[in-house]
Amino acid sequence: MAEQAGPTWQDDAGRDLVRSFGDRMAMFVRGKGARVWDAEGREYLDFLAGIAVNSLGHAHPVFVEALAEQAATLAHVSNYFATPPQLALAGRLKRLAGTGESGRVYFGNSGAEANEAAFKLARLHGAASGRTRILSLKDAFHGRTMGTLALTGKPAMQEPFLPMVPGVEFIDSTIEALEAAIDDRVAALFVEPIKGEAGVMPLPDGYLESARALTERHGALLIIDEIQTGAGRTGEWFGFQHVGITPDAITVAKGIGGGFPIGALITFGAASELFYPGTHGSTFGGNALGTAVAGAVLAEIERADLVANAARRGAQLREGIAAIGSSLVAGCRGQGLLIGVALQHPVAKAVVAAAQEQGLIINAPNDTTIRLVPPLTIGDTEVGEFLRLFAASLASVEDALLLDSAAAPVSGAVPA
Ligand SMILES: *Cc1c(COP(=O)(O)O)cnc(C)c1O
């Protein structure tokens, strides 16, 4: 119970924190740009950015000033009232998402809350038109709450918490599977433009266009989860904007707050009229503090043209990774600064550990994929430094594999 009962921070974490996250890999005390420092003063290049959250990097002056200024002005008043930063952010999100006049925004405090709202939107649409089916993709990730877990296509994650909220069916990520599954009893289809947690897995070419046509034909909502792909990360403001479609709703979180917890459901057209007074709410959602910070973060992404930077630096990273010529690397998936490096062997965790040794923070959504989601602000210096550290990390794991003669190529490796 004592604060800092010690002897080490690992002891404190192991005793006091919920066990669902496993052992913490380090304890960070400070960050600046794409760098973080641990309790021993060691510096790391941060290419995880809090899992695609710190769009502007750490301690960006725009983030710091917006937070301090709004905290000193008005932090929270509840949703009985409006505030200028809330209205400004709603307008900005509508403009960036391209909803036009008829769009509306619901604010929550996380990705899961944004998707919970989207699930309720789907139920309202279903209730109004006699539809009970909701389609989601196998291997999709939409969150950890009971509602969003029901949308998450990972049986192992659901299993300890059965029964699930009913009505959700999981289909393969192919146009054929969607064609076979959809009918007039489907209320909504949920999709991620790139399945981030599944290992940065893109949808097949033409999927979103077909999904739009099929959902429209059958009167179902197309709800796109942009929580990981949004806020400019893929080289467009939102992933769906790489193809010329208009969804019925998108959900955003992670990168829009730059480190402040905020999420939102953005609706388009007729879907904007489904929620009516009393059907949903949140005490903290859309408070002045969070919306001021997210507004400032998005304004800075626009001002500094970081969406274009994400596309450019993403291409530079892909080229550089290919040029390393590591026998461990099969190739890269993803778009912009959402990159999945596919490995030839299930050694992703060893690569992550080797990188940390080198002073580089990256992560492994599965055994054969390294995920790179650095701040959108990175430039030549960070790209160069990353490539040097990543090459060294791969080389040390390659050496270990050569020593371990038992290691054989794995047939289940995810292709690039
Ligand atoms: C992270 C994520 C979520 C969940 O967001 P939380 O803020 O952790 O609740 C949902 N969907 C996708 C695609 C995500 O990447």
TrEMBL record:
Pathway: Amino-acid biosynthesis; L-arginine biosynthesis; N(2)-acetyl-L-ornithine from L-glutamate: step 4/4. This is Acetylornithine aminotransferase. It comes from the Bacteria. May also have succinyldiaminopimelate aminotransferase activity, thus carrying out the corresponding step in lysine biosynthesis. It holds the Pfam family Aminotran_3. Its EC number is 2.6.1.11. GO terms for biological process: L-arginine biosynthetic process. The modification N6-(pyridoxal phosphate)lysine is found at residue 254. The gene is argD. N(2)-acetyl-L-ornithine binds at residues 144, 282. The lineage of its organism: Bacteria, Bacillati, Actinomycetota, Actinomycetes, Micrococcales. Binds 1 pyridoxal phosphate per subunit. It comes from Microbacterium lemovicicum.
